[in-house]
Amino acid sequence: MALFDLPLPELRAYRSASSEPEDFDTFWTKTLEEARSHDLDARFERVPTGLSTVDVHDVTFAGFGGHPVKGWLVLPAGADEPLPLVVEFLGYGGGRGLPHTHLLWASAGFAHFVMDTRGQGSGWSAGSTPDPVGSAPSYPGFLTRGIEDPHEYYYRRVFTDAVRAIEAARSHPLTDASRTAAVGASQGGGITLAAAGLVPDLAAVAPDVPFLCDFPRATTLTDREPYREVGHYLKTHRGRSEQAARTLAYFDGVHFAARGRAPALFSVAMEDQTCPPSTVFAAFNAYAHEDKQIEVYDFNDHEGGGPFQEAARLRWLPQRLTT
């Protein structure tokens, strides 16, 4: 696929038409207050993996509604003092998988917490966390689950889980809460932006080719899943476009980006039809912190920078997390 979105100079100036709800901050403050009424109950169980360079803990903590959410905590073997912490969120359809697939950040000397995404983990990587909350009829996938009401929307639970995951990871004695970063690609990048807007004291964030940004443009520009799920839903449920747009506005990465208080390293791929470049730039251009950068991959689709972006993060992140 050749370039299909705006030219790069226009992307650098592009602003989303997404309308922020007047009660956006109140909505999220109340949501997190409700979640924190449940004991975090973070439990870390050391598990054998056959790996000699890392120590791995199977983690369970209370997320949205007090529901148990799983994760991995991967530490450099023999760590005996608090380490800078990288909390990672996963792409659409995937789960936490197996520990040996998460070696990068521990190999670089960081504590690495991987959050399982509730209800996912049956696509490209296995998950361990169910979503016990149902919804009204929704198109297969996750983007329309509970779309009738922001209080019932699927990503209200996921974004709350993300905040609680950071709190759980920070509760471990071998993590340094003052040196915490959030990272993720695609859906993980969108969750990272939510964390950037909801957790005020992160040291850094790195959203790669982020999903869940600029819904008004994304849902009308690309025919590719997952954004197309919204179109499929509205094709059947005629007349609900306004309500769907209202719900999605509470979860738009553009509005979380406007509250970002940590240095940020974004990435974008110019041929990305899954998360179109303009939707990524909408979040980047709205991002509030002045220390922000974006890596542009001219001829890549949704794979983005892949290992090249991992290398970029390995160069960039230690400058924000080490003392």
Automatic annotation (TrEMBL):
Any Pfam family the entry gives: AXE1
PANTHER family named among the record's database cross-references: CEPHALOSPORIN-C DEACETYLASE
Name the UniProt record assigns to this protein: Acetylxylan esterase
Organism listed in the record: Streptomyces kurssanovii
Protein origin, superkingdom: Bacteria
Acetyl xylan esterase domain location: 1-318
